[in-house]
């Protein structure tokens, strides 16, 4: 069996076979536009791409991973102006914020983080090549536009036909623009905004050309995997294909287009900086552990949308339903792992590894992979209950740690404590009274909910209960 990846371009799962003779997979991920701190939607995309990268490396592939920063943009300029500072320092602050936040949720860093400002000369050269081959044209104002009509395959990624493109495009043409579908390669300088020299006068690049140029310079004319959020399919990634394949003549520009589903709110709208409906990752990490957040982000298949719902009861601090579920799930895994000493070196439970691999080989199906891990946890609990603490018991626990590690999950991470000692004692007092009233189901529910939070309750003779915090 081999890894099969779904591609937005083909609409099917295809076997992952390296394109290049050296066997190294080229993976490019469209990174963040650093106009503010990263939100949960950003984390969803980049954790998904991190899981893909980790799994491929675990499966024995060699891989080079590049992820850009769009460090000059209209919204960065607007943010800088609102803060009475320059665009460069503004972008730098939020780039650093992104890296720190992703470090916390265990996203491994890319080999390279190219920036638009750092690759400006290469971007200008790329645009010049499109103009020379008549795929781009220059307006009197000094703007450069991509001629969509010169690329007959336009729309093949988003599966839009010519008529739908025209309907979706703005009917009023911007000055110097020939076709409503054409998009900017270079924008002439505006007063008070950062600009760079070019053959067409000072200005700055359009959004889409930047990634085409950075991909070419860091990974080459053709790459194996191109990732990003589903909201980038059109127009950004569609335009990347048009630019890159028009300049190089090499098809496909990307073999596998991988798009992560969006984080959606209760009203169905996507979480986004532009909509001002976002929750920053840092604010979530004030309430939940990085491990809980990461588990929540991968418990849903990466191509599916991810619901983000805040619950608030009686004025209490809002809770995220999915992360509360993640906290409970991790509690069950910690209890299965237990406290008995064992070595992480040694053989694994091959049957479990095979099932986990089958799930992840099928387009990185993390829900199915986690189900395999929980089946393993139940086997461990059964052995422990039977007193069969032997070599097979340790092999299963070692496998549990290993496979969670493939997903970037480590049970050794310290648990956040959401309940203090007085509150545990209060709950146990309520539980004792419920037991006296023979309300066994409610008493058991308190015990189970405490267990989900990492508090183990042990009933002793005489109606006395003791408790401990699990490691």
How would you describe the overall organization of this protein?
The two termini are 38 Å apart. This protein is an alpha/beta fold and 471 residues long. The longest helix has 20 residues, at 366-385. The strands form 6 sheets. Strands 4-3-9-10 form a 4-stranded parallel β-sheet, with helices on one face. A 4-stranded antiparallel β-sheet has the order 5-6-7-8. A two-stranded antiparallel sheet has the order 1-2. It is built from 15 helices and 16 strands. Helix 6 packs across helix 7, helix 10 packs parallel to helix 12 (366-385) and helix 14 (421-436) runs antiparallel to helix 15.
Outline:
This protein has 471 residues and is an alpha/beta fold.
Attribute tags:
alpha/beta, 471 residues, four-stranded parallel sheet, single chain, 16 strands
| Biggest β-sheet: strands ordered side by side in the sheet | 4-3-9-10
Radius of gyration: 26 Å
Tell me the span between the first and last alpha carbons: 38 Å
Helix fraction, binned, reads 40-55%
User: What percent of residues are in strands?
Assistant: 5-15%
Backbone structural class: alpha/beta
* Secondary structure: number of strands: 16
Morphology:
elongated
- The number of distinct helices, counting runs of at least 4 residues, comes to 15
| Mean pLDDT across all amino acids | 91
